[in-house]
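Known limitations

Files may contain more than one protein. Parsers should not assume a single record per file. Below, a two-record file is shown to illustrate correct handling: read the sequence, read the token line, then continue until end of file.
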Amino acid sequence: MISVKRLGLFSSVLLLALGSGCSSSEFRDRNSDYHKAEAASYTLPENLAQRDAMPIPEASGHRISSAQQAPRPEPLRVLDEKEGVVQQRADEQGGWLLVTRSPSEVWTSLQAFAQSQDVAVTSSNPRQGQILLAADTASRLPAQRISLRQGVRRGTSEVRLHSIEDQQLLPFSDYDRTRMMSMEAFLVTSLTEGGQSVSLQAQSLHSNHSIRLVDRDGREVLVMQLEYDRAWTELVHLLEDEFNDDYQRLDDLNRSEGRFYVRYVPQNQRPSGFWSRLFSRAPAADAHNYQLFLSEYHQELDLILETAQGVAAPEAVETELLSWLERQLR
């Protein structure tokens, strides 16, 4: 005889099974649909334009022959801190400092230097990179302005100091030079100590100037988005440092014409190895002479390589030397 308890349990299971079977669902089981699948064919309209949805554009400029060998990569030239974290430079505007740190790092040290001086700080603008020191009325010395901006190469800064009067820059003086030397010593100490802080506001001073090699009318041109003075000064220091042997040498320069007179022997014509260089003869004095010509072009600067004024250098030498300059200046 079935107990009432078991009968109740059996009834509950039966009602649950009937309810589940009778319930409706908007989701149909499609697990077996692929057994009944049939192949389908579609005919495109005859007037439908046939074209590549993702066409590959034609390459511009000259192509490198497969027979040519790619040159070995050269290490990027970086400023050697053995010469100092802060280096003195000079141009037509007077002396200035090249610092191997970013502007956001240098700014905090410049602020500390300005506050340590015997004159008041009348204004300080990290976004413009300018600090104005008050005039020394007791000694009848003018006000001075400290200016900070990014250097030509990444991770460097340029610091200038000039006396000003009636919002006009005065010629660089011994007074400026004395304070700049004090600033140099202060920056060296400050930037070489641990825990150097960074100014977020001064990060706006990081410029995105571009130095790029382009193919223009079949010639390689090094385009520089820089002021003429900055580009000229950086090229002078680079060539004086690196072009100092029989295979690459800076012979002369003419700033008024924007020309560097150099000797440059292509890499494939140089002896390889220590013993080859030791016993090889130096190139003839009248061979491998070129001119680097810096000129303004549509609010940019163009640097081209010539064998003589108006005469293009051989394409292989042009590409090799200008590519090397691009890598060093980036």
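...continuing to the second record:
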Amino acid sequence: MDLRARLILSLSPLFVALALIGIVALYTQQRISEGLKAVDRSALNLIKVAQTESLILLEHFYVSDLIEGASRNRSDVEQIRAETRRFFEAHNERSGGFIELELAARYEVMVAQHDAALTFLDRGDYERAQALIRGVDYYRNIRAIHSLTIGAQREYEVVYLQQIAALERIANEGFWIASAVVGTAVFIALALAISLIWQVGKSVDRLTADAERFATTEATGQLSAISSINQIRRLRDAFQHLLDTNHARQQQLAAALQAQQAQLERELQLQATIRALSLPVTPLGPQTIFVPLVGYLDNERSKQFEQTVLQAIQQRRARLVVIDINGLAALDETTIQTLIRVGRGARLLGARAALVGTRPEQALRLADLPGDLFHFARDIPAALNLSLTLL
């Protein structure tokens, strides 16, 4: 799997958690909104019940004032009744509970008593009107209305508290659900991230160990197995290819080096053969040897020339060494010094040295040679005649 895909996969629980938290938040918000509406309705019911009791008592005081002769407007009583009945109608349509029905019935009884008292008052029967609103039945009905109102308030208060508790429970449930989702997502994400880091670190450690091992030795082989992450596998395959290519190139270089060493040995042998052939020693008689010089005398050829001539004198017990300098390409100071050393060495071994084939430009350079060190001859026959004279 790709490293980026693995990283996204390790973070996917957090994305899922965010989505779930959003869903839980929306659902919790909806439930809280409904709970708030229910709480508002319960609080409104409490207020309405209290207001209704106030209206009922207010109607009682208004009717009592009218009967007592106070200057009251009967339209106020009608307005209070209309508002009280609207409350009962609204609550009976929503709930239709026993307390609301009983309270409405008791209120209608009180309204009937008030109407009867006001009717007697209109007829001028003040005593009967006053007796009606001060009778035992009237006050018993008032106490029943008060008791029913208190009961309704308690009932709505219980409902209000229950709905407040439900609202708190909804909020707590949403919080704990969100906390559980976040905790689970974080745990899974951390587990996946730690697993990814461990796999990457282990693979890198193996590749590093292989690199150190192959860097300190010339051995080759297969790299260690690593995780299935694409980038790490590509790095491992590239490293393996580089290692195989490097090993193949080392083998090619070793083969080329061996071939070059063999070629160098052949060239050295050829150069030795050429050097040996470039300074041939030819006997011209029993005690006379002939050495032609061709080309240039560098330091190596000068040493070889000195050794070859002196060894030939000793091996062949020569008395005369004829050196042909006609083939020399140049007669520089180094060549002259070489000839002087050869001449002196030959004298120390009991032989004489003769130079033949001298060209005109060489004669000027050879004029400074010690006179008793070399004999000079025009050509080889003259040198042979010289050998007969010296021997």
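Parsers that stop after the first record will miss the second one. For reference, the second record is described as follows. The mean pLDDT is 80.
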